[in-house]
Amino acid sequence: MISLTPKDVLPEDGTAGTLVGRVWLPQAGGPAVVAVRADGVFDVTARFPTVSALCEESDPAAALRATGGERIGDFEAILANTPPDSRDKARPHLLAPVDLQVLKAAGVTFAISMLERVIEERARGNPSSADAIRKEVVRLVGDDLSKLKPGSEQAMKLKQVLIDQNAWSQYLEVGIGPDAEVFTKAPTLSSVGSGMDAGLHPKSTWNNPEPEVVLVVSAAGKIVGAALGNDVNLRDFEGRSALLLSKAKDNNASCAIGPLLRLFDQTFSLDDVRKMDVGLTVTGADGFVLEGHSSISKISRDPTDLVAQTIGPVHQYPDGFALFLGTMFAPVKDRDAKGEGFTHKRDDIVTIAAPQLGKLVNRMRNSDECEPWTFGVGALMKNLAQRKVL
């Protein structure tokens, strides 16, 4: 069971930034959009029925600061009531900080993770084959492609060399080619927040967390803020076939975002995201500890490029979208058998952290053991209408 305090999840500067979240209100039978401030958690749903609506403001941070709202409690109490095992259903608990935004993800945006995807593909989802294949791929491609600009003339020359050596891969195509991989991670409203269980498909035997920054983008394509995310990945499913991407990525509770959305203001900007280091710690009940990090400064495509490849004349998002930026983290530390690398075990505690965004903490369970997702868009609209806030 997870036990969390504000110090465990808030940014290093506490509530100095403009922090927005969502809280389940039992008395309302639905979620509230909240501002998390030094003096408590304030319900601003009457002004902003959804986080999506707030993000459509010309200056979301200023709009939130100008809205007082009704105080519903201390962040400490609401956070403490969030883990499912100890939750009092009559009291508020924390949710993921996005709602109507489409949940999108960019893949293969770092050289290291690109190489691991090639390895997954060649191993056909078999972790025991990965170590030997990893050495062969690094021999052919090298282990540092961070200076290679996707779509550039240099990248296209490398592509031809690899094709000539029968070493080309669909993952290299999206890693160094002109077009980014952007896919739909999960259904709208299905993400889980900090303190909640995150899900793994019960048939998966080779999987890992993916610590990422998640940008929140308006319908006009404006990046308005960021949160942390875990783009939970099944390496065996995707390794068997890239056509299994949806099964590898989209399962109950397999999309975690939180702890809060930090809006861009005078304390936090996109440039802060560009130089952000995202840390990861996995702590197992077996005593195993895995640590890693993902540095956005080493991303192959700028966040604005990924956003531009997601939204535009050929694709619109009327309620905005949340975009996982990808990760450079690829776990190779052996957990059990030598050469088989890392895979999750039941009750692993995953902590994803960045100084300006706080910590996203989740316990790993099989997706069919996690709380079922039952509150969708229809339920949200009906609830907001009943509360007369639409």
From TrEMBL:
InterPro entries: FAH (IPR051121), Fumarylacetoacetase_C_sf (IPR036663). Gene3D superfamilies: Fumarylacetoacetase-like, C-terminal domain. Keywords: Hydrolase, Metal-binding. Coiled coil: none annotated. One of its GO terms (molecular function) is hydrolase activity. Belongs to the FAH family. This is Fumarylacetoacetate hydrolase family protein.
